[in-house]
Amino acid sequence: MAMVDGRYAHARELLQQHHIRMTPQRNAILKILVHSHAHPTAEAVYNQLKTQVEDISIATVYNNLRLFTELGVIQELKYGNEPSHFDYVSVRHFHVVCQQCGQVVDVFYPDLEKIERLVTNLTGYETVGNNIEVYGICPDCQRRQAHLDAT
C-alpha cells in the first residue's frame, strides 16, 4: 500500500507542478487510475465513481483523462476500434493485449532502453519513448476456447 500511496503522491505532485486544481472529481479519478492494474476505460472509471462522487459525469471523466494524458500523468492505450484504456505511467513497461477479450496486462522488461538504442542505430531517429504492444490470447480465453473445442 505504501508504494501505491507514493505513486498517488507523485501523480498529485505532477498535477500541482502544472497548477492543476484538485477537485473532488479529479482526485477520485486519479486514485482509480493509480490503484488500477486493469487499464480501465473512461466508462469503467465513470461506472466505478458515479455512486460515490457527487457531480461526476462521463464528460468530467473524459475531460480529466484527456488532461492527465496531455500532462503525461497517464497513457492512453488505443487498440483498434475498442474504447481507449488508460494506464498510470509510473514505471516504463509494455503491454500484452488479448485479441479476444481485450484484457491488457503490463509487462516489465528492464531493457526497453536497449530497444530504443537499436531503433536509433538502425534508423538515425532520436527516440523519445515507445509504446510497445504484443498481441495474443490470454489464458482465460485459451481455457474457454479449449472448453468449447472439447464440447
Automatic annotation (TrEMBL):
Annotated InterPro entries: FUR, Fur_C, WH-like_DNA-bd_sf, WH_DNA-bd_sf
Coiled coil (residue ranges): none
Binding site for Fe cation: 113
Positions bound to Zn(2+): 98, 101, 138, 141
GO molecular function ontology, one term from the record: DNA-binding transcription factor activity
Keywords: DNA-binding, Iron, Metal-binding, Repressor, Transcription, Transcription regulation, Zinc
One GO BP annotation of this record: regulation of secondary metabolite biosynthetic process
Family: Belongs to the Fur family.
Protein name from the UniProt record: Peroxide operon regulator
Species of provenance: Lapidilactobacillus concavus DSM 17758
